[in-house]
Amino acid sequence: MPSCSPSITTMIRMDHTHVMAAFHRYHAETSWWRKRAIIELACTALEIHAQLEEEIFYPALSEAMAGDERLAKSKPEHDQMREDIAKLRAMGPQDAAYDARFMQLMREVMHHVADEETVLLPTAERALASQLSELGARMTKRRMQLVAQSRPSAIAANTFGTFPLASLAVMSLGALAIAHCLRPASARRIRRSA
Ligand SMILES: [Fe+2]
Ligand SMILES: [Fe+2]
């Protein structure tokens, strides 16, 4: 049966957008506790994203781009990113080099993302057209495993620290939905027939 999952390229673009949004929250004058939340959220998201690409996306694409150096440099760039993340985690926000090191990580990631979005993703959409949805389903399944291994409570806390207003809006919508479901059925019927 064909998969109705979003395509793997859509998911990759959504991950990139999420990390860029976290980057844009970071300013030199941001409080130290928010800087830590933003960096932890961005770094965990990047680690999971890179692992998903390496396990699922790059292998599927390697046949279509065999020998192409634009794909060959992707894994070394991920390795460089992991090194930078390890160095950042060994520092604290009060460290004088903290901002500069995070800005460097941002530059490298933006460059990598630009290459993926202008070369690898369009190539995948042409070469893997019939598999994009099935690969997307595999990515979702694997993502759930990796998130479960990465302290989901810390991810939730850092998401709140990075995007407080958006998190409150999501929680409010959730509370409204729960309140609606908990309301007596008779009240819902009266409202519907009014
Ligand atoms: Fe990548
Ligand atoms: Fe990517």
Q: Can you characterise this structure?
A:
- With 194 residues, the chain is an all-alpha fold.
- The protein folds into 2 domains: 8-154; 163-194.
- It contains 9 helices and no strands.
- Helix 1 (8-24) packs across helix 6 (132-149).
- The chain is globular and about 45 Å long.
- The termini are far apart.
- The model has no long low-confidence stretch (mean pLDDT 87).
- Residues 12, 16, 49, 53, 113, 116 line the site of one fe (ii) ion.
- The chain crosses the membrane at residues 160-182.
- Keywords: Membrane, Transmembrane, Transmembrane helix.
- Residues 8-123 form the Hemerythrin-like domain.
* Main pleated sheet: none
Averaged pLDDT = 87
Compute the number of structural domains: 2
Distance between the termini: 43 Å
Count of alpha and pi helical runs: 9
User: Which strand-content bin applies to the residues?
Assistant: under 5%
Number of strands: 0
Shape: globular
* Low confidence ranges: none
Rg over CA atoms: 20 Å
**Helix-strand sequence:** HHHHHHHHH
Please give the share of residues in helix: over 70%
Identify the bound ligands: fe (ii) ion
Structural class: mainly alpha
Pfam families: Hemerythrin
Protein name: Cation-binding protein
InterPro entries: Hemerythrin-like
Keywords: Membrane, Transmembrane, Transmembrane helix
